Amino acid sequence: MAKKIIVIGSGAAGMSAASAARETDPEAEITVYTDDVDVAYSPCMIPWVLGGKSSWDGMIMHTPEWYAKERNITIRTATHVEAAAWDMPRGAPVVKNITVDGKTVEYDKLILATGGKVFIPPIAGTDLPGVFTIRTVKGGKEIEAYIKDRKKIVIAGAGVIGLELAYELVGAGKDVTVIEMMDQVIPRIADKDMADPIQAYLESIGVKFVMKAPVQAVNGNGKVESVSSLGVDYPCDAVIFATGVRANTDLAMMIGLDIGQLGALVAAPTLQAYKNGRLVPDVYVCGDVMQCQSAVYPGPTMSQLGSSAVREGRVAGINAAGGDAKFGPVVAPWVSVIGDMQIAGTGMSLGLASWYGAKLASGKASGYSRARYFPGHKELTVKLMADAATHRLVGAQIISGEDATGRINWITSAVLNGMTAEEFIVQAENAYCPPTSMVRDVVLQAADELVRNLQ
Amino acid sequence: MAKKIIVIGSGAAGMSAASAARETDPEAEITVYTDDVDVAYSPCMIPWVLGGKSSWDGMIMHTPEWYAKERNITIRTATHVEAAAWDMPRGAPVVKNITVDGKTVEYDKLILATGGKVFIPPIAGTDLPGVFTIRTVKGGKEIEAYIKDRKKIVIAGAGVIGLELAYELVGAGKDVTVIEMMDQVIPRIADKDMADPIQAYLESIGVKFVMKAPVQAVNGNGKVESVSSLGVDYPCDAVIFATGVRANTDLAMMIGLDIGQLGALVAAPTLQAYKNGRLVPDVYVCGDVMQCQSAVYPGPTMSQLGSSAVREGRVAGINAAGGDAKFGPVVAPWVSVIGDMQIAGTGMSLGLASWYGAKLASGKASGYSRARYFPGHKELTVKLMADAATHRLVGAQIISGEDATGRINWITSAVLNGMTAEEFIVQAENAYCPPTSMVRDVVLQAADELVRNLQ
Lengths: 455, 455
Hints:
about 30% helix, homodimer, about 450 residues, six-stranded mixed β-sheet
């Protein structure tokens, strides 16, 4: 009989899991349940659509009908999974089912890809019309319609999504204020010295920032009229919360799955879940709902990135369908494009490292993305970090006008492989052509400085 | 007394060595001898200057006067080093000197950065006016002056420099024919399936190719009028030989230094030379004149790249000045930008691997440089190769409209660290943002295919 695989969630993790399961088992009956009305899109694209650089239709890669026809995957959109169960009662058959819109459905293998929820602080007024999060195409369309003839937008949270959105909305003619609790943009994953130039760039194009300021209330009479922070009222027509994502563990908690120290699901390298410390053979997890192992320091870390979700989804899908795949510890490289600036990071920032009690040394160098004499070169700054005790590379951040992504992937590979700063100097090589790099790439120059600082 | 360091050669290796020696020892007396009249430029830039994208002055970073003033380095341009010696006669002092334009000069430490010579086949007519190589600014200016009012150019050799030049000269209105001995462009370091699209692209903009054809004679009465190949005459006004570089070991042979299997100098990890199998403590080598150890298979390899030269120069310079640096085995990543196309490679190609007797498996995938729904995405093809027996990643090639460099450096790091294809799938991560990559980068898709092909 065909194996019955149920996937809950249609984000990058869920859809990758469904597709990988299909590649692994051509016979399985695969069903995806989602409360979304669209599938197969990258929510990271939403800021650019709101900025007019693409369209809602353009950012959706496939329809549910396409999945049915091309991959024999059934997608139930706009459904609500109310409950899920996996239990092994003594002397009775294993209980394996979910409840969807009041109906019980059995599964052989369950893949939990329930993603994350945007964290909205428990303050007054967040239920007013004009309060939004940025997570789905449907939500994006609502923002677009609401702000069409409105001008003043507050973005709560200066993470990368908030900043990408701020740039695009200013470009679309809006008056944008970003309110951030910390004293820097992109807190936690970027260091202040690397984040400050991004804030300065956004200020130069008209974005206003209110720093070290929590949003304490949303005010308005029937719709958003202002937000309050530290005794000041900021008049606005809409508030978009881009305040980070928490693992959506509601269903996992119903099953009783083990939740880790970071508030997300714990998974084996096969991405099977645990319950009371025991491996659950039939339930897989992937995407923003899970925590990962750090490849840098022993311990857990979050990697709520689209690229991680796809890799996790593939592993969960292959294994659920009877194949053999493993998910390794992560360094978690990320990149954000904000107008003419790119900022990228990988592994430890100073903030992340402090969580592991680690002391870091760093080396920073500036130069260009191309040969300095090649027309069109952009400024490029690389900060490379190593553990002060072991000299192992543990992370990096890059700000540049172009080509930050390849460089951060390159460093990620060195971090993953446990290279020390000294080994990196001796062994790391960069390809060179005047239009694409300096003859000695700025990454290597940062390594020189790092080694000097370690001595 | 100040240590007397002599550097022979003012290319990327020689100038990096001189600067690194100065950083290491502020007191040393450092002199660079060169037959060139310009220093501190990247010859890789010459095609773009001939194409009008920059100027001769623009591509030169520093003058000899700048080095004298800023770094206390003496540069003797347009000098000819006729002889060099290092000997340790029994019962007599060590002989350490060079002969420059008839004068003997003693050294404490000698750095040989004599570079390479463009290989010109031993055929008739190569001494005619209108025959050029592409290696120095001076030579570039001569080409520019000679072809200014002439139209038909033959480029002998379809390596990356030949192709970059072909593109730029067509753009400058010339009629360009490339004559290549092998059956593909970029032979040896690129595989035919990856090189053919580059040839097709150049053909589409008007470059003519004559393949599997050695240049057998240059003909003309007082100046170049045609070249002959396989019985056919190709009328032309100038011939530019871009037929690869051989190590320039003339001086090294006078000293009696050991030359390896690939016709270039053998060096220790400190980049000290050998003589009769013994380490020579006072002579260092760097740049195109030396052979490297391969980081992929045991054995020697050539890495005649500007990026390698700079790294080698730094190591030689630091050590010659009394510091401590090492040069590791190389993977040797390279990249070439030819108009709207980029081609990059690292480690083994099928051709290079055959030299080591290795059997490879490969995986190839195509996609885009950005998210497929992000405007401006370019096509991107990645070919990833592993040793068929050990499954270790051994090389890769990329063709793309953008961002090949970072990706090839990323793969280079994985090859260097000995990752298998299976480990790469489990562990390799890519940063994602719609304007700079697909959520699962094409590099990872190629790895999927490689693992399938290894099974």
